[in-house]
Structures are given as C-alpha cells and as structure tokens.
Amino acid sequence: MRRAFLKRVADMIRKEEDTAFFTVDIGMWAIRDVLAEFPERCMNVGIYEDGMFSIAAGMASRGLVPTIFGIQPYLIERTLEQIKMDLAYQKRGVNVVGTGAAVDYSKYGYSHYCAEDVQLIKMLPGCEFVAPGTAKQFLQLFNASYRNGHPTFFRISDHPNLRYDPDVRFGKAEVMQTGSRATVLAVSVMLDMVMEACAGEDVTVLYYTTLEPFDWETLAENCPSGKLLLVEPEYEGSLLHDVHKALPGRALRVEQVAFPREIFRNYGTYDEKMRHYGLGSLNIAAKLRALRD
Amino acid sequence: MKNIFRNLRKDALYLSHKCRDGNLQSVFSCLDIVWVLYDRIMNWSPEKAQDADRDFFIISKGQATLALYPVLIEKGFFDKEEVASEIGLFNSRYCIQTDVTKFSGGVENSAGSLGHGLPFAVGIAYAGRIKGSPSQTFVLCGDGEFCEGTMWEACLFAAAKKLDNLCVIVDDNDSVGAMIDMGSMRLKLEAFGFDVFSVNGHDPDALEAVFRRAGGLKNGRPKAVLARTVRGYGSPTMMEHDIWFHKAPDAEELAMLEKEVEAF
After folding, report:
1. Among the residues of A146-269, which ranges form H helices?
2. What is the pLDDT of residue B1?
3. Does residue A92 contact residue A253 with C-beta atoms inside 8 Å?
4. Rounded-to-integer distance, Cα B198 and Cα B228, Å
5. Contacts of residue B183, Cβ cutoff 8 Å, sequence gap at least 6
6. N or C, where is chain A less crowded by C-beta within 10 Å?
7. Which residue in the set B119, B125, B130 is minimally distant from A41, CB to CB?
8. Distance of alpha carbon B121 from alpha carbon A201, whole angstroms
C-alpha cells in the first residue's frame, strides 16, 4: 500500500502542477527522483507535524493541493488543534496519509501505536477518514477524494488483505454477502478474516473502507436481524455512534472484535498483537456464534 | 498623534463597547502597525480584496482582531455601523477573533488559537512562491505568542525555503516579560536566518521606512520587524491599568476613553 501510494505521489507531482507533497522524513527512497526534480513541491520537510499542518492549510487557501505523509500518531495526535482549526473549520483540502496504525510498528512501543486514530478524527466534524484494505483500494479512494476540498485522512497498512480485494467507492460500504441472521461490519484490513469466519454462514457482510463520512444507508438497508458484529482494527467503539445513527429506534444487539481500550505495554510482532487482542478469524467466528444463536 | 490614528482607536473602542468584549490593550498596541501596512505598504484595496496576487495580512495574535476591523472600516471595506451592530451576535459574520470562513476577501485567516497564524502565513507565502505570484505576506504576531513551538517551526521552514516574500511583525509590547525570559528576539530570529529590523511601533513614518527597506531586500531571507509597542498606547488609563487587557468599556468609560484618545 505504501509503495502504491508513493508511486501515485510521484505521478501526481509530475503531472499536476498544483499539488505538493511533504514527507515527515519517511519513504524518501521510493520517490528520490521526484524529490530531486521538484524540490519546491515535493520534499522531506523534516520531523515536525503541527506547524506543517498550518503551513499546508495556508497553501490550500491559495488553491494548492498538499499531501502530507508521516506516522499516524504524530500526524493525528500531536496536531489535533491544527486539524480542528486550520483544516476542518476552514475546510482546507489537505490530504494526510499515515502509516503505522494501529500497531504496524509492533516493536516500537506505545508512542508508535495509534488505535485511537479513527475516533479522534471522527470526533472533529469536517474531516474524512479512509482506511483501505489493499493497495488497489487505496488508489481508488485517494483518487476519488484527494481533490474534494476537505481534509482527508488515510490510514495505510503494511498488513493488507491478501485474498479479498473488491472494488470500493469513497463514502460507500460494499455488500460482500447477504444473509438473515446477523450483519458483520468488516473494516479495512479485517476483511480477509471476516470472510473466512463467515464462509457458509447465513449472515450479511458489509465492507467499510470510508469510516467518515460513514455510509449509514447501506447499513440501514442490510441489518434485518438487528444483530451486529463490528470487526475493526482500531479501538472498540469507534463506530458505535454511526451504528446508532444508521439504525435509529431499533433494538440492537452488538458484539465487537476490536482493540480493547487499554494502554498497550507490549511489543512483539504484529501477528502476536492481533492474536493477543483477539483480532482473528477464530474470535470473529466465536463472537458470531454467540450473536447468531 | 494624527487624526486617523485617533479615529482608528475610537472605532475600536466603539466596537468593543458594542460587543461588550475585546482586548483593547493589545488592539491599541498594534493599530498603528496595521494601518501603516494597509495605507502605505500593501498592494491591497477593497477592489483587490479577492485578487490572487494581492498582498496578504494575517493576524496571528488573534486578540488584536479589533485592530483589523477599524482599519478595514477606515479603508471603506466594512461599514462601521454594520460591524458595530453585528459583531459577536449569534449569526454574525464578525467574530471577536477573525473568521476567514465568513468572508471572501478582507479577512484572510481564522485567528483565536495562538501559534497558528504564522505557519499559516508561511504556507500562503510558500504557495505564492510555487505559483510565481508577486504577492507579499505580512503576519502580525505577539511577542508572547513566540512561546508556542509552531512559531519556531514556521521560522525554520520560512528561512529554509528562502521566503523573502514574508514579513513577520512582532508586536513587542513585552507581554512575554510576565511569562518567561525570552532573551533576545533579534538574535534568535537572526540565528534562524531572518533579516531583522527594529522600529518604534507607534511611529508611522519609521514603520513605513522599515517596511520599505525590508520589502526591498530580495535576498532570499525572510524579514522580521520587531516593533516596540506599548499596551494601550493612545490612552493613559489603558497604558497604566492592565485590567484593560480584557475589558470592554461601558458608556461612561467609552466617553472617558474617547476623550483620552482625543487628547493623546
């Protein structure tokens, strides 16, 4: 996903004169040619985020389309006030592409984890949040939104889905299968695991890659049972508000497979972390059985 | 003090009285700077307010917004009675801190949170560079605001990108003295790569001269103008009593302060 993104950046900088790209000191090797060729519009800006966000807002105010690339917690948490005032309130079309969330930098400790990114951005009205599950989907979503005049946050993962790669649309959920006994929301890189757990089950699977704006309509049309399993690679509860908005007045039964709301003091591999916190097809299947029966 | 500077202050007093809010000490501190920029320096007029190549004025010290409205009133861009009757009201365009989302032209940034305006201005100046625009960007900062890290991040970027189309004005009314020992702003900004100028921020001719000198230096270095100012300048009462940092005059005080300004 990272490679696809940087390749797109190189293409964008070469062909679109009103675009600019700033990396917070990562990914330079992949775009070394454009960095050298277009030093004004494509640069390693150095290790700072909050000032950079305001600078990007100023550039957007004069009609440029800036994209910033960095590590998710620094892009989103260090900069929260800049996001609120300089991007969201002023409706500045700045794109922010973050790597690392939720636990891709699994050995680096809590500073590098960011399971809270979705909720933080969704908490600030006016921002968009996109979490593609594959490189192809990243490109579909980026191309659909990077010039739309809103601040858009992209969470890119080094652990994409390998089996399932449906076409996706910005702002829309995809119906992967339909069934009557429960509805499963698979978010981003959780799709493979969800599909494995739901194979042969009489359940609906909806695949979400745009988390803000949330597609309430598709959920409303595809939840006859009122039983919901939310499977998301972020802190639990990140989408509960939207579930209730989509299904007002309904008695719902909700189960979740997601990171628990706690401080992660462990290291290890990505797979160890996912296993430890129950983000896997076995746990999904177990939760689904409990919900369905 | 020339009449225009009295009138600007009386406008600010009136607006503050009408909206029952405001930071008049800060406003009086920087009014002369803002007027000189709009009247003598900037490529700006009401007709050019949306011109892509106009000069930009950014208020980074948001508490001085009531200095911008009087200047734009005196320049004929805003109507005084409209601003006075609407400022701060529920659905008004006129916020106590400038709100760029309510205007197309005239107000260039959203102020309020300190440490945002300078990097925003740097983005405007840098975009001008990329687009090959001749516009200049002027940004008014408070000395106290330089405690924010984003200010120095912006300075680093401005110098590294050789933004000689940027002029940072420090309204140096020694607010920071009550906070922390900032040391020498001149040395700090010079070390960051700025051409630094000092001036009496209440002397219009000296301000004009320094802005012309700074603007003429197209040497790949951003400019900083350290303007020595006095909080509440133009009213002995405000200069003496810091309660006027955040206080609006009632009718009686308005009359008293107007008299002081008249006599200053």
Report:
1. 191-198, 216-221, 240-246
2. 86
3. no
4. 8
5. none
6. C
7. B130
8. 57
Structural domain total, chain B: 1
Number of H helices, E strands in chain A: 12, 12
pLDDT tier at B179 (50, 70, 90 boundaries)?
Answer: confident
- Would you call B101 an interface residue with chain A, using a CB distance cutoff of 8 Å? yes
Is A89 near chain B, with CB under 8 Å?
yes
Q: Please tell me the distance from the alpha carbon of residue A52 to that of residue B8, in angstroms, as a whole number.
A: 35
Which domain CATH number covers B180? 3.40.50.970
Read off the pLDDT of residues B56-107 as tens digits, 9 standing for 90 and up.
999 999 888 899 999 999 999 999 999 999 999 999 999 999 999 999 999 9
Give yes or no for B112 touching A (CB within 8 A). Answer: yes
In this structure, which amino acid lies at residue B64? A
Do the chains contact at A59 and B126, CB–CB below 8 Å? Answer: yes
What residues of A are in contact with residue B130 (Cβ under 8 Å)?
20, 40-41, 59, 64
Would you call A91 and B100 a contact, using CB atoms and an 8 Å cutoff?
Answer: no
**CA separation for the pair A14, B50 (Å, rounded):** 29
Which residue of B lies nearest to A50 if distances are taken between CA atoms? B150
Question: Nearest-CA distance from A183 to chain B in Å?
Answer: 41
Q: Using the beta-carbon criterion (under 8 Å), do B130 and A56 form an inter-chain contact?
A: no
Beta strands of A45-187 (E only): which ranges? 65-71, 95-99, 128-130, 152-156, 174-177, 183-187
DSSP letters of B103-138?
-SSS-----SSTTSHHHHHHHHHHHHHHHT----EE
> Least CB-CB distance to B150: which of A40, A45, A54?
A54
Neighboring chain B residues of A48 at a CB cutoff of 8 Å: 153, 156
Q: Phi and psi for A248 in degrees, rounded to 5?
A: -70, 140
Question: Which tens digit of pLDDT belongs to each residue from B211-258?
Answer: 999 999 999 999 999 999 999 999 999 999 989 889 999 999 999 999
**Residue A265: pLDDT band by 50, 70, 90 thresholds?**
very high
Mean pLDDT of A263-292: 96
**Upper half-sphere CA count for residue A30 (Cβ side, 13 Å):** 16
A49 CA to chain B: closest CA distance, Å? Answer: 9
Residue B153 lies in domain: 3-263
Q: Which of A245, A256, A202, A241 is nearest to A220 (CA)?
A: A245
**CB neighbourhood size of B212 (10 A):** 11
| Cβ–Cβ < 8 Å for B103, B87 | no
ipTM surpasses 0.85: yes
Contacts of B84 (CB under 8 A, 6+ apart): B14, B15, B18
